[in-house]
Amino acid sequence: MKSFYCIKALWAGIAMLCCVPAVHAVEILHWNRLPLAVPLVVGQERVVFIDRNVRVGVPARVQDTLRVQSAGGAIYLKASEAIAPSRLQLQDVETGSLILLDIAAEAAEAAEADAPPLEPVRIVDASQAAAAGPAAVAPAPPRPRHTPVAVVLTRHAAQSLYAPLRTVDAIPGLMPMTLPRKLPLKTLLPNLPLAYQALGAWRLDGTWVTAVRLRNTGKDRLMLDARDLQGDFVAASFQHATLGPTGLATDTTTLYLVTRGPLSRFLSPAVSRFDARTARPAAVQPVVAPAFTPAITFEVNHEK
Length: 304
Hints:
Elements: H1 2-19, E1 27-31, E2 36-41, E3 45-49, E4 54-57, E5 66-71, E6 74-79, E7 83-92, E8 98-106, E9 121-125, H2 126-131, H3 149-162, E10 175-177, E11 194-204, E12 207-216, E13 222-223, E14 235-238, E15 242-243, E16 252-259, H4 276-279
Parallel strand pairs: 1-9, 2-8, 3-9
Antiparallel strand pairs: 3-6, 4-7, 5-6, 7-8, 10-11, 11-12, 12-16, 13-15, 14-16
């Protein structure tokens, strides 16, 4: 009788084990400035946990074959067909730091059709993981910034536009901002034949920098001077202060405007141009008074 209860308990334990759902392991990858390999299988979605808001840079040649979605600190990758080794760039929205992923997608073999899906991946910063050990100490207070904020912002904007992303310095607290669609940029240098285009904006400690592309639309060479700018700016600088005639490679430059808030608050109001000669009131024609004619008095003789 005792053995019967033991066998019954054994079968109950086996049944409970069969009912436990399968738990997928998570692969831990440590980011230490070396690209991380994340293999994919065609038709299977793989999740990458990074626990921060990032922008994903995808090469143009794989945009049609790789689906990339980002939400809540997780990235979802799914390949629709085989992909040759390619590199993705994950850029932190707040700090601008980069993490590089090397991906490659292969078709699943017939024998592996019933294989379990690829396990998720969690990316951990190696430096932060070391600091989180048992011997971790309190984080050091942020060091004072010796470089003026205007210089830091202008340099970061220029690097973001013209340098490779991997060379852009990560600055804590610096973040890209969204620009309105229409800005009255023509008021910046209203006396020069220029075309304007807003390229981007960044913010740090309440100070903004906005990059504006300037293109010479005239046939003459232009010398730009920041003292001629119309607006209330903390600082302003040109990528190149000399513009060649329109149509040449030298007819374009970039203007960096540093303000204490969004650029739209510090631009001069747009004033419509008009010809003062046509706006003058019409001349009044002088009225010539008729010559004075003395009154003639007629005397009437009433004598009979």
